[in-house]
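Sample entry was shown:
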Amino acid sequence: MTVGKSESKKITLRNHSQVLALYTIEKVNDDEKDCSFSLSSKQGSIKPGASEIISVTFAPSIPGTFSCTQYAINIHGGNELKFTCQGQSLGNDVYLSNKSIHFGEV
């Protein structure tokens, strides 16, 4: 992904139980230095038999870096599921038509 652009992927959370499922999503081992990934929702509730879609957006700000962030989805009642987001940023390629520029001076 080129720096300055973003891309999103969808994650579907499904509640197969017969009761309301309350959830929270937290970063695991967060050093707060890499903010390339963001989530559309970090907490909520899912009705019985329903689902909810969470958007994960990757928007790198430093060229030439690899980003890896792990999240934990905690369901109130004890269940936990972890997922990992990975992305690599690319810098912009810049080319000049001439090898030197003189600005009219010798």
